[in-house]
Amino acid sequence: GQAMTPATGGRPATGSIVWADPDTKTKPIGVRVTKANGKRAIVRFDPGTTPDDARALAPALAEHARHAVGEHEGETVTEYVKRWCEWREGRGLGCVGKDRTTLARHVLPQVGTLAIATITRDDLKRLVAMLDAKVRRGFTLDAEGNRKSFGWKTAANVWAVVRAMLRDAQRAKRVDLCVREDNPAAGIAGPDTGTRKAKAYLWPSEFAALVSCDRVPVRWRRLFALAVYTYARAGELAALEWT
């Protein structure tokens, strides 16, 4: 965590609310705060925040920013990822473990040593080009040097995690995670997409014929029935036990 320093002098921090319409002040976007390092940043409100709630939250967010030490210019992407994932775990997000592995395998080797506060759009374009190259090759290597298939959907998932991280680096609700004034990933074209697989569906009459056919082993008919009625994936079916 980051060290905390006491506020020194001046009037209490109140924060300046940013409104979608400055004239009516009916839709609050966020609160503009001053960090301990003197930099200004906008902490975004959740969608649906009412004007009254925004006015109540603004002083607390501004005071938090005033006390928190926010000097992260030398913080690397790898170091930021650690703090970001810990914060998301604390919020109970179940995807964090997978996202951490995705970043460690496909992103940090490329940009992990760069400073999170100064990573550029060109850096991210090179990252996207690297993902496209993996897709064209069709595989990547794991830590043991074994080949792992790598398709366009995997590349798209990797890019989605990167975009989420950089979005929070600009406007996370936890002020010390807001280490940028911009989102360098905004507007950058992600990895190329491929052809989506066509999916076949059985008509009820076809399903009835399948599960009642004596030429189909009973074990397979049971699996087909379970798959159709539970919508379970193959891996989920394989893990089922009678109990």
Structural features:
extended; 45% helix; mainly alpha; 243 residues; three-stranded antiparallel beta sheet; two-stranded antiparallel sheet
On the 0 to 100 scale, the average pLDDT is 85
- Low-pLDDT residue intervals, each spanning 5 or more residues: 1-9
Which class of secondary structure composition applies to the elements?
mainly alpha
Helical region count?
9
Strand tally is 5
The portion of residues assigned to helices is: 40-55%
Describe this structure in words.
By secondary structure, the protein is mainly alpha-helical. Helices cover 45% and strands 9% of the residues. The strands form two sheets. The protein has a three-stranded antiparallel sheet, with helices on one face. Helix 2 runs antiparallel to helix 3.
Report a brief summary of the structure.
The chain is mainly alpha-helical and 243 residues long. The chain has 9 helices and 5 strands; from the N terminus they run βββαααααββαααα. The two termini are 45 Å apart.
Compile the SSE list and pairings:
Elements (H helix, E strand, L loop, with lengths): L15 E4 L8 E7 L5 E5 L6 H17 L9 H14 L5 H11 L1 H4 L9 H17 L1 E3 L5 E3 L2 H20 L32 H8 L6 H13 L3 H6 L4
Antiparallel strand pairs: 1-2, 2-3, 4-5
